[in-house]
Design a protein that fits this description.
- Strand 17 (334-342) and strand 18 form a beta hairpin.
- This protein folds into three domains: 31-121, no CATH class; 138-284, Copper type II, ascorbate-dependent monooxygenase, N-terminal domain (Jelly Rolls, Sandwich); 291-453, Jelly Rolls, CATH 2.60.120.
- The protein is built from eight helices and 23 strands.
- The longest helix has 12 residues, at 16-27.
- Helix 1 (6-12) crosses helix 2, helix 3 (32-43) crosses helix 6 and helix 5 runs antiparallel to helix 6 (100-111).
- By secondary structure, the chain is an alpha+beta fold.
- Strands 1, 4, 8, 9, 12, 13, 16, 19 and 22 form a nine-stranded mixed beta sheet that branches. A five-stranded antiparallel beta sheet has the order 6-3-10-5-7. Strands 18-17-20-15-23 form a five-stranded antiparallel beta sheet, with no helix packed on it.
- It binds heme C.
- Heme C binds next to helix 5.
């Protein structure tokens, strides 16, 4: 076919611009089988398939065709795939954003009749893993089932498991699997090393909650060398700790603590979740450690405040620490969070800034490990919307403080770090700056202004 210059086309085709689009489409028609399915396979089907978290499947043409217009809207507005990090800050290995080319492909498909195309262009279906995604060397289960009521709020549960590990272990990958995926909203499995006082009064296998059983649980979850080994969020998958030849350390004699967030499903049911992990075949070069990160336990959010700020800080106490992962955590009034460093030489760098969406709890793998020299101040700044403009706000008249319930708030950024093999994880951070302030009644919690005032 002869290609005409655009200027000629415009005048020769009836319908002007519309005609150009139709012509372009007929020249290289975008089809589902050739162009669209590969994009959906790579970027969408991990969630959009039966049994996963998205409301509809995008596995086949029949599945996807009715959604063509919605797909166009969702990708053009960057609502899908969900990705909350501000592109101005940081580079992430797990960046989920679509390329402009892929967005244009999906838009062109929807705009041009959403045709199926030739069956011989269709790529083979993706084989998604069923069951364990890793091949665990060790599997530990909750020793007895947790029984859920049919309805009502269930506070976070903490369950101590006597693991009786007979030797030191170095873990390369971990995977937490819910026993009953319908009721496990998210969960974590912690390593409690020997000597830790966390949950020392707990009866193994029993489920305890912070709200009413602090005397049993204690207050040293984020200390005493306790380390998060595996996590479950829908769509998260297994976690690997092998960045820079690192592995996670599980000392001989450690116990595990399952931290479970359950949601009732309308009928009584039960769950036995488990954790599997793989062991390093060779001695690791560095230790991977997971920390709760800077936490604004002293935050106070005034009633109605549409942009309340909370600032928290830790100072790096060891040489040779590197930041590899960041995962913001807030509740229903959370808006956004960033994590930044003030280096010993006074320079500041923002590593990650992200919108917050309670339903997603997204985590960010840094493309390159970020060295944090000893003395670096690691700072988390977050904002909350306690105004009537926030559709998730459970009570705009409440003065909100730190707490485990969704109607209370949190501001902390879970962080993954690598450290020297010889160092003590408990010495990695020193509490500093606004984190040390007492909660200030009524007005607001620590803000960037308090941080500047302390300089
Ligand atoms: C990490 C999981 C995940 C990925 C990846 C993902 N989705 Fe979704 N998608 C969801 C969930 C969950 C919903 C429903 C809740 C919502 O709308 O936020 C949804 C909703 C949608 C909707 C309905 C939007 C609306 O406004 O009602 C469309 C269309 C969509 N996704 C298309 C896509 C496309 C196209 C891709 C890939 C380019 C994609 N999604 C990738 C999880 C995902």
């Amino acid at each position: 076919m002869k290609v005409l210059p655009l200027s000629l086309l415009k005048t020769s085709l009836v319908g002007g611009v519309m005609g150009v689009a139709a012509f372009a489409a007929s020249k290289t028609p975008v089809t589902f089988n050739k162009d669209v399915l590969p994009v959906l396979q790579k970027n969408c089907q991990e969630c959009h398939r039966p049994g996963e978290i998205a409301p509809m499947s995008l596995l086949t043409y029949t599945d996807a065709r009715p959604w063509a217009k919605a797909i166009k809207a969702a990708v053009a507005s960057k609502k899908m795939p969900p990705w909350f990090a501000d592109p101005k800050y940081g580079h992430f290995a797990n960046d989920k954003r679509l390329s402009e080319t892929d967005i244009n492909t999906l838009v062109a498909w929807a705009d041009n009749g959403a045709v199926e195309g030739d069956a011989k262009d269709r790529p083979a279906p993706v084989k998604f893993p069923e069951g364990w995604q890793i091949k665990p060397d060790v599997i530990v289960e909750m020793p007895k089932a947790f029984d859920l009521p049919a309805k009502g709020t269930i506070n976070y549960k903490f369950i101590l498991v006597k693991a009786n590990f007979k030797e030191d272990m170095w873990v390369e990958a971990a995977e937490m699997r819910p026993g009953n995926a319908k009721v496990v909203h998210h969960g974590k499995v912690w390593v409690r090393p020997p000597g830790s006082h966390w949950m020392e009064k707990a009866v193994p296998g029993e489920a305890y909650e912070q709200e009413t059983q602090r005397d049993v649980i204690g207050r040293n979850m984020g200390a005493d060398g306790n380390d998060i080994l595996g996590k479950f969020n829908p769509g998260l998958g297994a976690q690997e700790f092998t960045v820079e030849g690192a592995a996670k350390f599980v000392p001989k004699g450690s116990d595990l603590v399952f931290e479970m967030h359950y949601t009732a499903e309308g009928k009584p049911t039960s769950d036995i979740s488990k954790l599997g992990f793989t062991l390093a075949k060779n001695p690791p070069k560095r230790r991977y450690f997971f920390a709760t990160g800077p936490s604004a336990g002293n935050l106070v959010i005034a009633p109605g405040d549409g942009n309340a700020e909370a600032v928290s800080e830790l100072t790096v106490g060891l040489d040779n620490v590197k930041l590899v992962y960041a995962q913001p955590h807030m509740h229903l009034r959370g808006k956004d969070m960033d994590i930044r460093a003030i280096y010993p030489n006074g320079e500041t760098e923002v590593f990650m800034r992200s919108k917050w969406d309670f339903n997603w709890q997204q985590g960010f793998d840094f493309e390159k490990p970020i060295p944090l020299p000893k003395g670096t101040r690691l700072i988390v700044v977050s904002h909350f919307d306690n105004s009537p403009n926030n559709p998730n706000n459970p009570d705009t008249k409440a003065e909100v403080r730190w707490g485990y319930q969704n109607w209370e708030e949190m501001s902390n950024c879970f962080i993954g770090l690598t450290m020297d093999m010889k160092d003590d994880a408990d010495k990695m951070f020193i509490r500093s700056g606004p984190s040390l302030l007492k909660p200030v009644g009524g007005v607001s919690g620590p803000t960037l202004m308090t941080l500047q005032a302390k300089k």
